[in-house]
Amino acid sequence: MDLLPGVRSQTAATDRLRVHWIESGPADGVPVVLLHGNLSTGRFFEHLMPGAPAGLRLIAPDMRGFGDTERVPIDATRGLRDWADDAAALLDALGITRPVHLAGWSTGGAAIAAFAADRPVASLTFIDPVSPYGYGGVRREGTPCCPDYAGSGGGTGSPDLTRRIAEGDRSSDDPASPRNVMNTSYWSPEHREPADREEILLGEILKSQTGDDGYPGDLVPTENWPTVAPGTRGILNASLVHPREIFREAIAERAAAIIVVHNHPSGDPTPSAEDRAITERLRQVGELVGIRVLDHVVVGQGRWASMAEEGHW
Question: How many domains does the chain have?
Answer without folding.
Answer: 2
